[in-house]
Amino acid sequence: MTALSLRPGEQLASTVCSTRVVVVKAPPGPLDIACGGAPMAPAATVAPVKPAGGDQATLLGKRYVDAEETVELLCTSAGAGELTCGGVAMTVKAAKALPASD
């Protein structure tokens, strides 16, 4: 896989499906970010892929994190591929509970 040095605000696109994400948080140094088993690339270098019908593995507007929550990606275009970081599947970030308004 091709490791990318990510910075917040950077846009990535899948080369195998219509998934596109924006980097929200990333540690310094290169990371292996993939979608559908293929490395993701800077969005400006990837031609848009037409969305396929059927089940979507990445959901529009959801934030995806790695197990340690050191990498956070915001999905801006849903797709059929599963997001991975270092070969491990990323999960949807759980919403934080709001404080009671008593």
Mean pLDDT: 88
Which bin fits the share of residues in helices? under 10%
Total strands: the figure is: 12
Task: Give the low-pLDDT segments.
Answer: none
**With helices defined by DSSP (H or I, 4 residues minimum), what is the helix count?**
0
Shape: globular
Please summarize the sheet with the most strands. 6 strands, antiparallel
What is the structure about, briefly put?
The protein has one domain (4-92).
Overview of the molecule:
With 102 residues, the chain is mainly β. The chain has one domain. It has strands at residues 4-5, 11-13, 20-25, 30-31, 33-35, 38-39, 41-42, 63-65, 72-77, 83-85, 88-89, 91-92. The strands form three sheets. It has a six-stranded antiparallel beta sheet with strand order 7-2-3-9-8-12, with no helix packed on it. Strands 6-5-10-11 form a four-stranded antiparallel beta sheet, with no helix packed on it. A two-stranded antiparallel sheet has the order 1-4. Strand 5 (33-35) and strand 6 form a beta hairpin. The model has no long low-confidence stretch (mean pLDDT 88).
